[in-house]
């Protein structure tokens, strides 16, 4: 409980492996006090309302869309710079040949 309480519901969904590792580490330490050897820990079932799950998924999609948009802007800037450099080169070439 102590480990899971450190995370909000969104983090429990998106960082499941990290949470599972922390739970395993915590339980392993506690089990040693009772001479128990913990073999494995799995977080197998977390349930949230459909609305919350949908909201988390929508947020992730929005973040991916924003990253894609930023990539497209960067790509357009690079293409613009390439066109400018090419045009400058052609202009210099035209000046030299005249």
Automatic annotation (TrEMBL):
Cellular component terms per the entry's GO annotation: mitochondrial inner membrane
Bilayer-crossing regions: none
Subcellular location: Mitochondrion inner membrane
Keywords on record: Membrane, Mitochondrion, Mitochondrion inner membrane
InterPro entries: Band_7 (IPR001107), Band_7/SPFH_dom_sf (IPR036013), Prohibitin (IPR000163)
Family: Belongs to the prohibitin family.
PANTHER family named among the record's database cross-references: PROHIBITIN, PROHIBITIN-2
Protein name from the UniProt record: Prohibitin
Species this chain originates from: Tilletia laevis
